[in-house]
């Protein structure tokens, strides 16, 4: 009865209380997946200010993290976040895509929604703080150009991509990397939020054709006006 009472009190405050195990916690499930596959290197593409890397450390992951972030101000915060962590590196400043060159990135008011692609009304109307407030021209590099140097013969690598609709372009420039990772995680959209982006089903089919099986769907971003899922984190591992 005490447990039920505590749950009701916590939920009345807008929170929930769950066990930290794979059946009840997305984070515990992800930790178990990384451990099961022996992952010791994580490539964090679209690192922003280091939120993902910090969450990995909070989970107890003590392997090598390499973060990729193109925007100058976000990258400054990222460098501060990992400055005391010798196992967390930041790659040279560049956006990641299908070719090497230069590209303009739209800067969102909330920073995390910044993208190379134009934002659609479905996104900005659901999250007004995400509207673009500026832009920055940055180098554009294939992941194969920047990431391979971080691999060793002992690496068991995992790739995370959070590039706000640009995920398919990242994959197109990552053939060598994809050959050398055991799994990957992408934030995928369930309806068009950015112009010309590939949606959830198309991305699942593309990765399936490349030999990756869908393992989990977690951390949905929801339109608070109606409860509709907008984006979701999809985790894949190579078929065995």
In short:
This protein is α/β, with parallel strands linked by helices. 31% of the residues lie in helices and 29% in strands.
Structure, explained:
This protein has helices at 2-12, 26-36, 51-59, 72-82, 121-126, 143-147, 167-172, 175-179, 200-209, and strands spanning 41-45, 64-68, 88-90, 95-97, 101-108, 132-142, 157-161, 181-189, 212-222, 229-238. The chain is of the alpha/beta class. Strands 3-2-1-7-8-10-9 form a seven-stranded mixed β-sheet. Strands 4-6-5 form a three-stranded mixed β-sheet. α3 links the parallel β1 (41-45) and β2. The radius of gyration is 18 Å and the shape is globular. The chain starts with a helix and ends with a strand.
Task: Record keyword descriptors for this entry.
3-stranded mixed β-sheet; 7-stranded mixed β-sheet; 240 residues; alpha/beta; globular; Rossmann fold
Protein topology:
Layout: H1 2-12, H2 26-36, E1 41-45, H3 51-59, E2 64-68, H4 72-82, E3 88-90, E4 95-97, E5 101-108, H5 121-126, E6 132-142, H6 143-147, E7 157-161, H7 167-172, H8 175-179, E8 181-189, H9 200-209, E9 212-222, E10 229-238
Parallel strand pairs: 1-2, 1-7, 2-3, 4-6, 7-8
Antiparallel strand pairs: 5-6, 8-10, 9-10
GO molecular function, one term: O-methyltransferase activity
Domain Methyltransferase FkbM: 44-213
Protein name: Methyltransferase FkbM domain-containing protein
């Amino acid at each position: 009865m005490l447990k039920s009472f505590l749950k009701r009190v916590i939920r009345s405050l807008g929170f929930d209380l769950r066990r930290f195990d794979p059946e009840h916690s997305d984070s515990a499930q992800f930790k178990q997946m990384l451990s099961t596959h022996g992952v010791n290197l994580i490539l964090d593409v679209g690192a922003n200010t280091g939120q993902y890397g910090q969450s990995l450390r909070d989970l107890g992951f003590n392997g090598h993290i390499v973060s990729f972030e193109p925007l100058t101000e976000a990258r400054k915060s990222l460098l501060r976040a990992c400055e005391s962590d010798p196992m967390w590196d930041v790659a040279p400043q560049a956006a990641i895509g299908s070719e090497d060159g230069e590209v303009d990135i739209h800067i969102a008011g909330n920073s995390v929604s910044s993208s190379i692609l134009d934002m659609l009304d479905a996104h900005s109307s659901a999250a007004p703080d995400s509207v673009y407030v500026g832009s920055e021209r940055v180098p554009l590099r294939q992941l194969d150009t920047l990431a391979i140097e971080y691999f060793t013969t002992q690496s068991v690598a995992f790739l995370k991509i959070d590039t706000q609709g640009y995920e398919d372009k990242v994959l197109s420039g990552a053939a060598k990397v994809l050959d050398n990772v055991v799994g990957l995680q992408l934030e995928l959209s369930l309806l068009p939020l950015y112009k010309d982006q590939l949606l959830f089903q198309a991305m699942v089919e593309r990765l399936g054709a490349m030999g990756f099986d869908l393992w989990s769907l977690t951390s949905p971003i929801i339109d608070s006006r109606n409860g509709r899922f907008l984006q979701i984190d999809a985790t894949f591992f190579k078929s065995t």
